[in-house]
Write a structure and sequence with these properties.
Helix content: under 10%
Low-confidence stretches: none
Distance between the termini: 28 Å
Order of helices and strands: EEEEEEEEEEEEEEE
Largest sheet: 12 strands, antiparallel
Radius of gyration: 21 Å
Length: 218
């Protein structure tokens, strides 16, 4: 990853980056070789007001290309837009949020598999990209000087192509809430409950509950 940032005044910042496109963003039941003809290109514009929060708009353009077992090559143009930010509320509370939409995002969208960016039809070697989108939000609240909590929710979706089988991942949902106690200035302990759900193309699903306990030293 190579990134360049340029301040455009006191509040605005422009970001530009190129990133190694080597990844497994395509599902294929047959061996297929991913190509990296050009890097992924990312542009972003951000406005920051420390007393209120910040807002950032990112865009990505990428080329996904594969060599098929038949010897032919297929390629598609992937793209995406992401809006994210945070808002400071009350004295110490904070609301974070983000939304992403595009095609062929794969590893860039947390909550789907990296191979959910696109797929190769085994019957005709046709290469197609999947619509990928997701939303996320979290809220942090300080109950007192030593006690704080964060609640969060996320949803990610990758619309399956018409020919893909029923067990293909369609969406995932994640939710969690925690309670942290700052025992010392550099020591916190806490507990968190989380819930996750995977839903497939045929509407079958798997879900899971988890409770974690942790110690944070910083």
């Amino acid at each position: 990853l190579i990134r360049w940032s340029q301040h455009l005044g006191d509040k605005w910042t422009l970001h530009a980056a190129i990133e190694d496109p080597s990844s497994n963003d395509v599902f294929s039941p047959e061996p297929a070789l991913g190509q990296t003809p050009i890097p992924d290109v990312i542009l972003g514009i951000e406005v920051d007001q420390p007393q209120f929060g910040h807002l950032r708009l990112n865009g990505i353009l990428r080329k996904l290309e594969v060599d098929l077992p038949s010897g032919a090559s297929e390629s598609e143009r992937g793209w995406g837009l992401a809006l994210s930010g945070h808002v400071n509320l009350f004295e110490q509370d904070r609301l974070n949020f983000s939304g992403v939409y595009g095609q062929g995002l794969g590893r860039y969208l947390l909550g789907i598999l990296s191979t959910d960016g696109g797929a190769i039809n085994p019957s005709n070697d046709q290469f197609g990209l999947r619509d990928n989108w997701g939303v996320q939000a979290s809220y942090s609240h300080h109950w007192s000087a030593k006690w704080r909590s964060t609640a969060m929710f996320g949803y990610a979706r990758s619309d399956p192509l018409s020919w893909q089988i029923g067990s293909t991942l369609k969406s995932s949902t994640y939710a969690a809430a925690n309670l942290m106690w700052q025992v010392l200035p550099y020591l916190s302990v806490g507990a968190e409950y989380s819930y996750g759900k995977r839903e497939n193309k045929d509407d079958s699903f798997l879900d899971n509950h988890r409770v974690m306990f942790g110690v944070q030293v910083y």
